[in-house]
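Design job #97: recover the sequence.
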């Protein structure tokens, strides 16, 4: 997985699980690795697990839901490709801002 091998440099990783609620595609260990590698956050279009562990991390994580069953790893996926999530296109290099109410996507850095 990208967060295990690449330095985040304050970026946000977007994982498109197709909106599936069948199982968790991200758990506590990868989130800890992402935090240690300098990622600012992770957005998952799908489920996560190990929520208490993730909430204890110093990294922002947003997902559709939690699920106790983890996904089987297939090693598939693409990097740095445009994604369409909930009717919104997200492209590499865009700025993402999230809080408990939602996620904002911007082509430019915003003053906060």
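Job complete. Output follows.
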């Amino acid at each position: 997985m990208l967060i295990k091998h690449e330095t985040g440099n304050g970026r946000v990783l977007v994982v498109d699980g197709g909106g599936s609620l069948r199982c968790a595609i991200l758990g506590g260990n990868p989130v800890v690795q992402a935090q240690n590698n300098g990622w600012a956050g992770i957005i998952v279009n799908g489920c996560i697990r190990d929520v208490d562990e993730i909430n204890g991390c110093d990294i922002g994580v947003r997902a559709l839901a939690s699920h106790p069953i983890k996904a089987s790893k297939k090693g598939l996926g693409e990097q740095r490709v445009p994604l369409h999530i909930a009717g919104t296109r997200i492209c590499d290099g865009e700025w993402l801002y999230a809080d408990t109410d939602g996620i904002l996507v911007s082509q430019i850095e915003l003053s906060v």
